[in-house]
Amino acid sequence: MIFKSSRVFALVTFAALILIPSLIVVLGSFKTDAEVYNKPLSLPENWNFDNYRRLLSDSDLDVSFRNSIFVTFASVLLTLIFASLASFAIARMITVSGKVLATLFAFGLAIPAQINLVPIYYIFRDLGLTNSFFGLILINVTTTLPISIFILTAFFREISRDMYEASEVDGASPLRIYRSIALPLSRPAMGATAIFLFVINWNDLLWPLLLIQESDKKTLPLAMLAYRGEYFVSFSMLFTAVMVASLPMIIMYLMMQRSFIAGLTAGAVKG
Amino acid sequence: MGSPALILFLAFYLYPALQNLQFATRRWDGITEPENVGFRNFTNLLTNDDLFYKTLGNNLEFTFLVVIFQTALALLFAVYLVKNSKTNIALRTLYFFPTILSSVSVGMIWLFLYDPNFGAINLFFTKAGLPSFALNWLGSESSALYAVAFTQVWFHTGQMMVVYIAGLQQIPKELYEAAEVDGASRWKQFTKITWPMAMPTTLVVMAYTTIQSFRAFDLIMVMTNSTAGPNNSTNIFSTLVYFTLFNELRLGYAAAQTIFMVVTMVLITWLQRKAFGKRYEK
Description:
The complex is a heterodimer of chains A (about 270) and B (about 280).
Chain A: H1 2-28, H2 33-38, H3 50-58, H4 61-92, H5 96-110, H6 117-126, H7 133-158, H8 161-169, H9 174-185, H10 187-203, H11 206-211, H12 220-230, H13 235-255, H14 257-270
Chain B: H1 3-23, E1 26-27, E2 35-36, H2 40-47, H3 50-80, H4 86-96, H5 103-114, H6 120-127, H7 144-168, H8 173-181, H9 186-197, H10 199-214, H11 217-223, H12 237-246, H13 251-281
Antiparallel strand pairs in B: 1-2
């Protein structure tokens, strides 16, 4: 009895804690400020896209949106390529470098790259990599490599040895085995890792904040932080910005819940 | 084959990490000639910097609260939702949802909820006839850190719940069936089966939550107006390093701070293993 009623109480409370704020944001993006403040949960008096129009005309959020898409896609793609190559080398231990890599990346897992805030700022400034997408992508890829390699190595190890050996007998080069056996077989793992990387890169604030100052180079989270400064009193506009920034992730989440949860927890378990 | 990854890792992780050690022994604004000061940055931090101790205290309190509550809630919800029924799966999907949002978005949502004049929380308390509960959540020194900690737990509990569910589903059902036959209560089943069997997962969840709490940087930047709260009440290591670097232009000092940050992080994870790991090894 106690178990059942406490269960229902706890589950409903937490569900409400997530649903109510979400509703306030969705509805609020169609409301005026006065409506948001007085009746945060009521339906908008007039359903219209005024806030969205104003957001597009007043801010550079559309530019930041495009920047975020480019930086995120490039970072995810490069990380997947480099990480899967390295994981294959580690899983197969084809050379000594496999072992060296495994140890090094384990180190990278234990100590997050955030500790390198100061030297990265200095090095990137000297290399002229601040205010550059290339610089941002470079650091995104580097910081997400250890975790991606960790996830992918586990999957490459699961592919049966016979598969590899058979193709080695046929005289296939490691690169060929990687391309025609390991990659196709690990598609689910690559998908999960890709989603994990997508969310991390799309949402990241720290590296853009450190490296990007020019407004036409800003990514979405960074532009939103600046936008918050401008519109500190207008929560209906902030909600609209939150909607625009979150919508791509929400749509993807609704379409592929399973892979999302798998990807983001694979990252957690192994991180 | 691993060389592209290796090169990037050496150039932009390992090399900077080593350089950070060197930076920490300098006094430097990043522009003029650096001056070698030996260990003076470290001794200054430890003996002559009240803000550093305040930050350390904040960070420890924040991490402690978030780890305790996030782990406990994640485990509770995992126990409640472990069976793969339709409602349970729907609830898991909902609980997991905040994880996919950016910390900037989450920070903005809670900035509104906590707002002393317009926010939904104070509106709720006023309407419920409890105006004394309507506080200036983020604006007062006594509540700001707790308000951010609450948001952090709201943000990531669902993710850790899913990790726990994966762990709980590994526990053999026969154990519970046998306990049921013996007439063991639910609480007994939890303390004798679930808790010890889930210990490996608990260690993972706690370690991950710890690292995550050190990275609450984004939330704090958004929620407490880029100044780390009234009287630095929400300053944690990561924000301190950022402010030292950008507002004070003291690169060497900031580098020394990051070293303390790593040491604290490693110590906490080690203590968790020490405290819980033993029972798990038996």
